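Recall the central idea of this unit: under ordinary conditions, the amino acid sequence of a chain determines the structure it adopts. In this exercise we apply that idea directly, starting from the sequence alone.
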Amino acid sequence: MISKEDPLKNLYVDKDEVDRLRLFVSLKNFLAIDKGTASPVFLEEYFELDNKNKIIVYMLYRRAIAALGRISSDEIGISIRDLSSELNMDFHEVKKNLKGIDSVTNDRGRYFIPADNLEMAVKELGHKADIYYSTEKNTRRIR
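Accordingly, the structure predicted from this sequence is:
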């Protein structure tokens, strides 16, 4: 329901909730997170992705476990060597693909998707489904 007292109040959202919802919707078809270890549990659709999109999914997974408090925000970044090991991919293949992912940032050899690049990463992944964000007062479609 839209606020009639001040229409601008309808622009308020909790950015953290929107980002968490966006992460969930983007990852739910590709992986789950083990409750005990916080390790990724890759689902069938993940294995149908190309290597670039597998890397994006894994980087989004790292952002999700940070949001869940399973790792600190300082631990979101991952080296190419560790990423290639985690994804069981060739080091050079990972390095080549990382260069083609605009949403990924490199900070002293550790690669991650900054919070401000979350939407860019989702678009690079090619996720087309709209999601809906509801508050007590209204419902918004998020593309």
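The chain has a mean pLDDT of 87.
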